[in-house]
Amino acid sequence: MNTPVALEPLYELDDAQLDARIEAAKEKLGESCVILGHHYQREEVYKFADLTGDSLKLARLASQRPNAKHIVFCGVHFMAEVADILSSPEQIAILPDLNAGCSMADMADLPAVEECWKQLATVIDPEASVTPITYVNSAADLKAFCGDHNGTVCTSSNAEHILTWAFDQREKVLFFPDQHLGRNASAKLGVPLEKMVVWDPNEEMGGLTAEQIKEAKVILWHGFCSVHQMFQPQHIDMWRERIPGVNVMCHPECSYEVCQKADALGSTEGIQAAVRAGAPGSKWVIGTELNLVNRLKHEMPDKEIHFLSPSICMCSTMFRIDPQHLCWTLENLLEGHVVNPITVPAREAASAKIALERMLAIV
Ligand code: 13P
Ligand code: SF4
């Protein structure tokens, strides 16, 4: 093993030098390393990804490069955890910067969800009547909770399928941490808003009455994405006035009011595919993270593409992965050092895998 490569000096390189170092390290590592990139990654990092996608696609891809001993995940922490859970035991998932978390994922934790389950049990029998579904944007121990309680995981691209499955299993769903995805997908399936209640983990009984819990079909956790909550219904009105006939497409982490006004909803992969399939000259307004929208604009100059919000909505944690951290990660692998491995404890990983494999079998 050689001396570890230091991160700080990499900040003294110019863009071209840094690119050349990343390219050279990638070349030397060959098939032993695969770089996965989420669509929200900044361009300087995204361009080095071997495989790109939304959370569902990346979860599938994580297990499909068996020759890659190292999976370098340019995304956020929960994504690297999924890669660790779904890949073979010999493979190692790496997150180039451990500060790349997801603030929404942090809005639900295992003790709070267990407490919710316990409190629900004072009113209904959750084991018999509630299917827990965690959005993939959550810690591995919450996926394990779902695995242990006959529940599953969903992503923004399969939430409706997963909810349909869940309603076939039991009467009610407990959906965490993103209330908006849960509400938007349930509404698409025809669940009336009055059958959805919001569980506030800071309140006794989630701030709900026993009657409200008994009447509810969907119990939504009080979580949200701080990036997507910046989009407002009046932004859509403004664009429709400015560009008659414009196609408005939003990510389902946006609020119900925004999603109701949009022409279509889609995961990051779904948004990308829809715009790519649009006719030359077609006009689009997109409600999701800025890096993806800018990339689509750049890729398709023959289309008119706008960002929904007048203010900048960027995912600051996705942005933590910069080319310097990518270079540092790859060059350390060449020196025999694995920086920032993401290892989910075995028992937790086994239960989380049940929940994730259940999801992958449904869609
Ligand atoms: P996608 O699964 O659509 O890529 O979404 C992930 C995410 O974190 C959106 O904020
Ligand atoms: Fe999490 Fe929102 Fe960032 Fe997606 S955009 S990773 S939900 S904070």
UniProtKB/TrEMBL annotation:
GO terms for cellular component: cytosol. Gene3D superfamilies: NadA-like. Keywords: 4Fe-4S, Cytoplasm, Iron, Iron-sulfur, Metal-binding, Pyridine nucleotide biosynthesis, Transferase. SUPFAM superfamilies: NadA-like. It catalyses: iminosuccinate + dihydroxyacetone phosphate = quinolinate + phosphate + 2 H2O + H(+). The keyword Metal-binding applies. Binds 1 [4Fe-4S] cluster per subunit. GO terms for molecular function: 4 iron, 4 sulfur cluster binding; metal ion binding; quinolinate synthetase A activity. The keyword Transmembrane does not apply. It is found in: Cytoplasm. Iminosuccinate binds at H38, S55, Y135, V136, N137, S156, H251, P252, E253, T268. InterPro entries: NadA, NadA_sf, Quinolinate_synth_A_type3. Its EC number is 2.5.1.72. [4Fe-4S] cluster binds at C102, C225, C315. Pathway: Cofactor biosynthesis; NAD(+) biosynthesis; quinolinate from iminoaspartate: step 1/1. Its cofactor is [4Fe-4S] cluster. One of its GO terms (biological process) is 'de novo' NAD+ biosynthetic process from L-aspartate. Belongs to the quinolinate synthase family. Type 3 subfamily. This is Quinolinate synthase. It comes from Magnetofaba australis IT-1. The lineage of its organism: Bacteria, Pseudomonadati, Pseudomonadota, Magnetococcia, Magnetococcales. The gene is nadA.
